[in-house]
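> forwarded from #structure-qc
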């Protein structure tokens, strides 16, 4: 879980390090919750790198803790909250 900044440009190097280390990334970075409009080239770079390593990057803003299980089950790449798998029911 990465909660260091709200700005994608300031957190990109950390995301890259985590992906290259083989880790999924769940971040509270607000700009990462929907990065395509403001940072299209940077977003594409992160998406490609995540897919290359078979990992997921998710920007969750304030719901980080509740999203971790869903992010772990997400397909590789950079995804938004609406694209995460639905939560499994607790039995």
């Amino acid at each position: 879980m990465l909660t260091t900044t709200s700005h994608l440009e300031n957190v990109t190097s950390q995301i890259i390090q985590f992906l290259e280390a083989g880790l999924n990334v769940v971040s509270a970075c607000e700009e990462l919750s929907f990065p395509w409009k403001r940072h299209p080239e940077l977003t594409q770079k992160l998406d490609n790198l995540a897919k290359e390593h078979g990992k997921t990057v998710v920007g969750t803003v304030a719901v980080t803790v509740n999203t971790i299980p869903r992010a772990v089950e997400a397909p590789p790449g950079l995804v938004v909250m609406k694209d995460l798998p639905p939560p499994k029911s607790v039995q």
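QC bot note: The mean pLDDT is 80. The two ends are 26 Å apart (CA to CA).
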